[in-house]
Structure formats: structure tokens, C-alpha cells
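[agent] plan:
  1. take the single chain provided in the ticket
  2. run structure prediction with default settings
  3. attach C-alpha cells to the ticket
  4. add a short note for the reviewer (M.T.)
[agent] executing step 1
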Amino acid sequence: MTRALSLFLVVSLVLGLPGSARAYQTYGVRVNGRVVVLKWGQQPVRYYVTDRGVSGVRSDQFRAAAERAFSTWQGVEGASAAAQFVGFTSADPFEDDGRVTLGFLSRPDLDRVLGATSFLVDNVTGEIVETDVFLNSSFPWSVASGGESGRFDVESIILHETGHLFGLGHSAIGETELRTGAGRRVIASEAVMFPIAFSAGNINGRELRPDDLAGLRELYPESASAGNMGAISGRVTKNGQAVIGAHVVAFNPQTGALVGNFTVDQQGSFSISGLEPGPHIVRVEPIDDADLDSFFDDPLIPQVDVNFGVTYHDRLVVVPKGGGAESIEIKVTAK
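[agent] step 2 finished; step 3 output follows
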């Protein structure tokens, strides 16, 4: 069997602009007419770090920040993601060399992109073959334990980008506000995988949130812990017809955890897994405050419905341990 390789996508973390937000959604590649979830087939993921630092960050400090970020993902209970540092390299990220490389690149043309991750995938199996991560050295960076005013935190941004490396998409669990002039400022983020970065000097992005944990558990479930979590699934409809592109969020009032997903098929179906057992409040909301091409693939955009109001399911949904709650239907109405 011939293995065909292709560059699948590049995902970036931006500064103050809406990005491709997908509440812990995973990426997929179409193989023989079916969509295969994009993930690593073999672990640990062996990675290299470039041997060049930037002002304020030496290469060994970058490596240490990367190891802390990978360790954070590897520490997720109920998931089995793993990575291993191999060594330093003179190669730059985004070179098609069969290696996983993390490092700095100077990209002044990308004046709002802090970092990005590229994927090379096997078109036969859908498995990830190579990923590279770069942080844009056109911005000021820091590895200070408590953060540094005016500089972006290396560990926080690497944690986000290595989430992509493992196969996670962006999350829509977060809030921003328009700034005077242009762009947006993050005022609340409930996921490391939220596509807009905290401001310079902030280190809040070093800690994973429930939406991040749920996504990793879905991609790399640990069999021994699989029976401890549950799921909510169902449909979103309007006038009896499927609603595509709706953002569905499950809120656990006992823990405060927020986990979400989107309806992206022709039935308006959604599934939110990795939930702690117990009662949840479920709401659905339109993605009506940003460009749709920042959220969905081009073929889906014409079908996305944003003409409805925020709607709550009419009762609490109790998530059972190790299984799924009874399927629900959330009926929305036009604005």
C-alpha cells in the first residue's frame, strides 16, 4: 500500500482576533469517503527543539518550557498522551523533514499570530506523521515563573500549540471584548485551547480546564479510567429542521465545569463526552459575533445557522457514570 502524505492544515493562536473556535472538537481527514479523527498512532511523540533562542529566552529555557507543557498534557487523568524530547536541532519548524520540531521563527508579516502548528498526515490511515510548532519571535517572550510585564509567556503558548499537536482543535469556551482601536481582549477563558491569547505578562494559560481535559480524553482514552466519565448527546432543531453550526455547552453546577461542542452534521447532532457524572445544565448558542470562516470549514459555512437565540434545555440532564445520558433535543427559535 502506498502511503500518500499531505500538509493538512496550519492552526494559529492569535492576539486579539477571533480564531477557529471549536469547543474541544478534534480534527478529521477524509479517507476513502469517511472522516478519520486526526491523532497519533504511535506514542510517545518524539520531538526536537531548535538550538536558537531569542531575546530573553535561551534554547534550553525554551526546551524546559516545552517539557513542562507536555508534562501538563501527559498528566491528564483518564488520557494516555505522551511525548519525549529527543534533542536540539539546527532545523527550523515547518520544514518537511519528518521530524517534530518546536522553536522560534521570525514572522513579522504575521503581526497578530503568536504561534502556529502544522500537520503532515497519512492520507491512507489519517494518522499524524509530523507536526511542527513555532512561536513568532517578532513578539517579546518570557519564561519567568510569575510572568513578565510586556512579554508573552512561552509555556502558556506552547501548552496551547501542543494541544493542537496532539490533535485538539480550538475551543469556543471563553469571552472577549472589543478594544478601543482594533482587536479583542480576553476577559474570561475556560479553555487553554481558546483561540485568542491572554495579554502579555499573563500566565493563566498554563492550567488546563475541563474542556481541554475532555478533548484529550476523547482522543486518547485510558481504558482503566474510561468508565468514570459520561456523555451528553442529542440534536438541535428549529421548526423541526436540523440546526448546523450551533454551539452546545454543558455546565456542571456542582463543579463549575464547562464543556462544549458544535453541531456539524446534517442531522444537527452533537456529542459532549468526558463529562463528570451528575446533573448538567445544557444551553445552545449561535456563533453570531465573528466571521464564520474563522469557525468552520468552507464547505459547511453556507449551511451554518446563526438566526436563533440562546436557548436552555428545559430540564437538568443527569450524566451517568461510564455511559451516556438519554438523547435530548433542544428546540431553538428564530430571533
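[agent] step 4 note for reviewer: The mean pLDDT is 85.
[agent] ticket updated
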